[in-house]
Amino acid sequence: APSLSYATHNPSRSTETAREMSAIRTAEPFGEGVPFGDPGWYTKFNSPYYTQSHVEYRAKVRAFVEKEIMPHTHEWDEKKSLPLELYRKTYEAGILPGVVGSPWAGGMGAQLDVKGPKDFDYFHELIILDEFGRCGSGGVLWGLLEGVHIGLPPVLNFGSDDLRKRCGLRVLRGEATICLCITEPYAGSDVANIRCTAKKSPCGKFYVVDGEKKWITNGVWADYFTVAVRTGGAGMGGISLLLIEKTMPGVQCRRMNCMGVWASGTSFITFENVKVPVGNLIGAENNGFKYIMHNFNHERWGFVVQANRFARVCYEEAFKYAHRRRTFGKRLVEHPVIRAKLADMVRQIDATHHQMENITYQMCTMPKEQSAKALAGITALAKVQSTKVFEYCAREAAQIFGGASYVRGGQGEKVERLYRDVRAYAIPGGSEEIMMDLGVRQAMKEWDAVQSRM
Questions:
Q1: Shortest CA distance to 145 belongs to which of 103, 82, 225?
Q2: 154-201 pLDDT, tens per residue?
Q3: Using an 8 Å Cβ cutoff, are 139 and 312 in contact?
Q4: Could you point out which of 1, 34, 430, 445 has its C-alpha 20 to 30 Å from the C-alpha of 439?
Q5: Is the pTM of this model over 0.90?
């Protein structure tokens, strides 16, 4: 079979851009200069993945995060909320439409005043999530980006033109917010067994929705809800997706007090006799499970990016603190045991980052139908890898900080907060146990297919 270039699989990239990508070289180091405190291509290492467009966009996103996010992170996390005008600011900065996958704004870019970077792809989206992770708060990152990142793609990818315009454009412009509602008190990773029902009204013009959703990110301030409902029989074949609006009578939301991600608006949502127009059906009836699985790859990939940057933040904070703090007459970093902790953190973070970039490259170069199947297993395993590394680094950073990591605020602020956020990455989007099983089951299917051809 002939070899296939980057530009062949990704029509948005020109042949010239593909050549530029293969020849990119790091010119000037970018960032604070902490060794391993940023991905290798920020400092001294060349990369085949990034173009000048990525370099320029990285600087733009970092400037926004450092000005608009990082100075307020602790305050917003403690308040457990964000100012809603931040959504509009993030749109105007040319960032918010970049978290729904490729193409830019989910294909709605021509209808937006703000344009995306040249040849937008998943590496641009990776940069957004990675740079926002530097704030060191899963709650702030989720509060601003996660609802859009996981709740809007089903509408843009499978919804009608009316839903894409009526809901999609408002959310992309930061004029409204959205959340994804799948998990229930009775069904988490076991999506096929959700109980929330949507029954057609006698007139056939509405679905009447009854049920509960739990641990829903951004629910308390969301204007739209992308909801998994049961419209048919038992199992995965009876699930549909509906777009429910907060203004519809019978929608009730209440905040949940959770261990971490405080500013994300985690909610318990009740739908009681909610009449939803049939036009708010996303895609085809009883095809919802397929749409959810399609969405999961992108969601889990986003978890990998975020969790690994949070692990890197833990390392970076610990590295800098170990150079300041003195014990037994010398700096912490001069103790071999501390250097060993830092080394263990770095080797795991960078290994995970390279796996993540490899998956991102496949997302950019594979046709979407192919990538949905080919990347499900490896993305699931990457999620496990990233959350385990995050947990390890949060613990080791806390050990290096000592009592300073036990205090909300102060020198150990980021480490203390991220230590509480770990479980929010290890469990949602598919728990580590479910993800490991999925990864191996996918491998078994591939092996069976190989054996059948022999």
A1: 82
A2: 999 999 999 999 999 999 999 999 999 999 998 877 888 999 999 999
A3: no
A4: 1
A5: yes
